[in-house]
Structure formats: C-alpha cells, structure tokens
UniProtKB/TrEMBL annotation:
The gene is ZrP_YNR020C. It is found in: Mitochondrion inner membrane. This is Mitochondrial inner membrane protease ATP23. InterPro entries: Peptidase_M76_ATP23 (IPR019165). Residues 1-26 are annotated as: Disordered. It is an enzyme of class 3 (hydrolase). One of its GO terms (biological process) is mitochondrial proton-transporting ATP synthase complex assembly. Has a dual role in the assembly of mitochondrial ATPase. One of its GO terms (molecular function) is metal ion binding. It is a peripheral membrane protein.
Amino acid sequence: MSDPSTIPPPGELQKPEPPKNPKSTEGFHWWRRTFQYRTGIGLTPEEKQNYENDYHFVLQRKQCQQCYEYRDWILKYSPTVRFMAQQISKLNGNGGGQVLPFDESKIVCDACPEWRSGGFHPELGILLCQNRIRDKWHLEDTLAHEMVHYFDNLKWQVDWLNLKHHACSEIRASSLSGECRFSAEFHRRGFGFTIAKGHQDCVKRRATLSVMGNPNCKDEKQAGKIVNEVWDSCFNDTRPFDEIYR
C-alpha cells in the first residue's frame, strides 16, 4: 500500500473554522488541525498563545473533563478497547517480540463539527469529539472504531486518500467496534431488521457515509460503489479478533 505520508503535512496554520461541507477537503482535515491546536504540535508560540486565549471550539471545562474521565475508564475496563490497545502495542514493537506500552496521550478529547464523533490521523492519533459523546458506552464504540483504524494503519500502511483503502478500514472499524451490534442499531433505528442483516446494513451505511467525507469521493453513489467492491474481503477480515462482536 502507499505511504500514508501522501496525506498533506501540516502547513501554515490558521485557527480552524468548522467546515460548511463535510465532503470537502477542509472537512476531511478539519479535525486534524483541531488536534494540532489541542496538542500544540507544529504550532508557533504565537499560535499557542492565541489558542489559550480565545480558541472557541473548546467546550466548557466540565464537558472536556468528562470526556477524559470516560476515556480513562474505558481504557481500564473495556475488554474490546483493552484488547485493541494490546494489539496496537504489539505492532508498535515492529514484530520483534518487543511490546511497547500503548500511548494514551495519542487519544485526545476536543470539540468537533456535528457530523462526527471521532477521527484518526496516522501521525497524530485519535480524536474523541467531546460534544458528540452521549455517554461512556458511546465513547467505547467510538474509541474502538478509531483503534481499528490505528491497527490497520500500523499493519498495512493505509493510504487514507485511496478510496478502496479507506472503505476497507471503515468496513472493518464499523463491523468490529461494536457500534453496529443489535442494541446500538435498535437505539438508532428501532424495530424492523434482523440481527445478521441489520449488522451488515449498518456497516455498509456507516462505511459509505465515511467514504463520502473523503475529498477524493465524488458523491454517495461512488462511495457506495467502492464499499461494495471491497465488501467481501474486508467484512470477512476480522483481524485481530477471532470473530465479529455483536
């Protein structure tokens, strides 16, 4: 697969504005710039000071603190997230038998546009959208989803601007994270689906929506076509799990 460095590196930064169109390049990279402001990585001293003074996307301290409390609880007690952290640690050891501790600082909470609950960037890590997290169980599903992307990127060096690469990881993340299990779909959509078909429909729907946000995707029709093209191989690939969690 292509080198993930094909994603444009951080350049001259201005305080990010929320994207008017989540399908745009700005929308695709908005959270990456938000992550930079939150961590301070790549910012000049003046930009850091501006962030401290008036960065208007940081929500109330209580909401931010709650997100981190949920994050820390899930990292400690969620079987899915703990397992993914272990698998990521093994890959970070470059397969040489060495296991590096999972870097929890790579998981950051911040405010995001209304159309997403989290994000992953290969250089920066995982963003949890504190203004979109309903409760700790929603955060668990979101974090597990992004950790599948983290795993995929380490294992296969995903090119996130390649639509097939992107679609494959989105299929796996939605399927393996638990966000498409019966109880989650029932909460979102109510009655009218079987467990097996409901799970697959949920995965396809969510993967298609995510691929639509890729700047190289023209529209929903193309996103759905790409998802269908890679569906069989990617949906049936449950690594590092033995089976799909429903």
